[in-house]
Amino acid sequence: GAVVSQHPSRVICKSGTSVKIECRSLDFQATTMFWYRQFPKKSLMLMATSNEGSKATYEQGVEKDKFLINHASLTLSTLTVTSAHPEDSSFYICSASPTGGLTYEQYFGPGTRLTVT
Amino acid sequence: GENVEQHPSTLSVQEGDSAVIKCTYSDSASNYFPWYKQELGKRPQLIIDIRSNVGEKKDQRIAVTLNKTAKHFSLHITETQPEDSAVYFCAENRAAGNKLTFGGGTRVLVKP
Predict the structure, then answer these.
(1) How far is residue B108's CA from residue B13's CA, in Å, rounded to a whole number?
(2) Residues sharing a CB contact under 8 Å with residue A2, sequence separation 6 or more, in sequence order
(3) Shortest Cα distance from A22 to chain B (angstroms)?
(4) Which end of chain A has fewer CB atoms < 10 Å from its terminal CB, N or C?
(5) Pick among B102, B106, B108 to test the A interface (most A CBs inside 10 A)
(6) Secondary structure element (H or E) that encloses residue B59, with its range
């Protein structure tokens, strides 16, 4: 149980284009999902908290207009990197907290490696 | 403050020896401290966690200790094996917002 998937697993896009990454909780509902970014040999940095039915909460320094988050259902959150540039190349990982579960539970997706050329 | 400091950044041990990783945090309201193991290109995997009302927890070769007064917690791996080689991250859950803040990571290499 508590499986989280991400799609795509890898994506290469050209500079200036937009890329959408999906995060799905497969066997549970998740009112809250989290989006992290991880640069090579670095730690996970929280970008934003995605809340079903309401606006996402962004961490300081993360541009909400560049990283669009939509949490349209209790099992799906999407992150769209708009006008991507090479410096956006990174490993993007989502996590999901089960609705009604322990407040600190987070189950991680397998990550999406984005390369912007 | 919202930092979690993790040491060491790299750790090389001989197979069978113990490995210890330490983290310090600054938010006295933090109430949950998980440890994750991440292999290259993979998702972080929860290996053990501890809540703020407990001082120590053990699961086979892995143990975690928490000192709330000093605001630090440690991961102990005994009888290390080559498959323990990975990057390990500590994290804290701040009571407000249910967010995880990660330490900088420790790259562990277990030499056979």
Answers:
(1) 8
(2) A25, A27, A28, A98, A105, A107
(3) 15
(4) N
(5) B102
(6) strand B56-59
Residue of chain B with shortest Cα separation from A102: B98
Q: How does pLDDT run along chain B (112 residues), one tens digit per residue?
A: 458 999 999 999 999 999 999 999 998 888 899 999 999 999 999 999 999 888 999 999 999 999 999 999 999 999 999 999 999 999 999 766 678 999 999 999 999 9
- Tell me the nearest-neighbour CA distance from B112 into chain A, angstroms: 23
Whether residues A93 and B43 touch (CB distance < 8 A) is answered with yes
Say whether residue A50 is in contact with chain B using an 8 A CB cutoff: no
